[in-house]
# Entry
Amino acid sequence: MSGFHDTIAAEATPKGHGGISVLRISGQDAINIASKIVRTHKSIEESLSHSVHFGHVHDGNRRIDQVLVSVFRAPNSYTGEDVVEISCHGNPFIVSQILSLILRDARQAEPGEFTQRAFLNDRIDLTGAEAVNDLIHAQTKQAQAVALEQLEGSLHHRIETLLQRITRIRMQMEIEIDLSDQDLADTDWKAIRIECASLVDELNELVRTGQEGLILREGLKIALVGPPNVGKSSIFNAFLETERAIVTPHPGTTRDYIEEAVAIEGYLVRFYDTAGIREAPDEIEKIGIDRSEMMIRQSDRILFITEPGTTDDETRRLEQLTESHDVIRVINKSDRMTDEEVADCRRRGHIPCSALRMDGLRELKDRLLKDIRISQNEIHSGILTNARQIAAASRAAESLSRSLAALDGGAGAEFVAFDMKEASQALEEIIGRISSDDLLNRIFDDFCVGK
Ligand code: GDP
# Structure
């Protein structure tokens, strides 16, 4: 992104008609620009931080709109710079006129540029910046709770604490390296080993819960697999009827399968169905199977659905397709089964259900969510929620494991210190203390303009 020192501006609210729209200006000329275009009773230039002023936007002598102007002075603003927010009537025609006036003296902000400035000015760390975007896009209570905790520093705090603990060991290693030849260091190797092992455990736990955090944020991906006509679509329609349907969480999904998302007990659950594809013959059949395989590979869980009449052949074929995955076996159309058949189905650990009668859905739901119930305490203490964070934490865990191995193998303090340093660097990447322009651009490009 260009010019960190210039003043930037953008509409902060979505385009369209509404009660109000908000235009945001940030940078050293923000207050001056606002005072040039808005006529207020009291001077905006002399206003206090966190004050709101009623006035009119003017283009020369032509009045454009009645507005409220909020003033935030550096460093106590979202970006850490002077920020002015102009709330005008929610009409794109009005917004574009006011924005053109502002842009005579400011530059149009790029996506995420306000938040990037907040990061560069130390108002938030990288996990906070990511949380802003997550909060904007959260569609379930759990995703919202995690994003808010992260925005308020839960993950940052947890990483900082880990970093401090690693730094303490690193300092002891440095002393050991400096003084070893004089035999002056009285290093407590046993205590260091215990602390290092505990750090390894904690990082591994962080990575493990991170996988669940990822599911909280992106949704639990569930592939519906089974022969035609067993009721795959009916089952997911039954979920759509009983739960809150979510409009395509990730727009632009391919036509290879149907995707529907629902919120089940505050969790985003995305169902994938290759409905119809496998029913086509020959060549297309092959493509259909390839697609099912791809869908299965990308899913967190598989609902393997059959009906009482499904042949052993068909079942075996699907078992091959789904082997080595986390499979939940469902036998649909239990309304056509005898009590004895239902009991037998349960004995084999399968879930009997009837999409038609809405039977067995409760049990199915519980099974789907069984392993992803993150406690509020865990969320509060900070969890990882995206692939970037998880990759960095995994690297930190590996480096620390190497330190531990070095300690156990009696390798010198230099070796322990080296791996500890790598672990610190990986953790610093998570909070953005170490970051490349490339990484920052990738993160902030995902944002909308005005945020
Ligand atoms: P899909 O091809 O696997 O997606 O199957 P569908 O959901 O299209 O269902 C195939 C047929 O089975 C339809 O006629 C449904 O009405 C019927 N069906 C679905 N679920 C049930 C059920 O629980 N009981 C009974 N008796 N019929 C069902």
About this structure: The pocket of guanosine-5'-diphosphate is lined by residues 226, 228-234, 275, 332-333, 335-336, 354-356 (CB under 6 Å). The radius of gyration is 28 Å. Residues 147 and 328 are 30 Å apart (CA to CA).
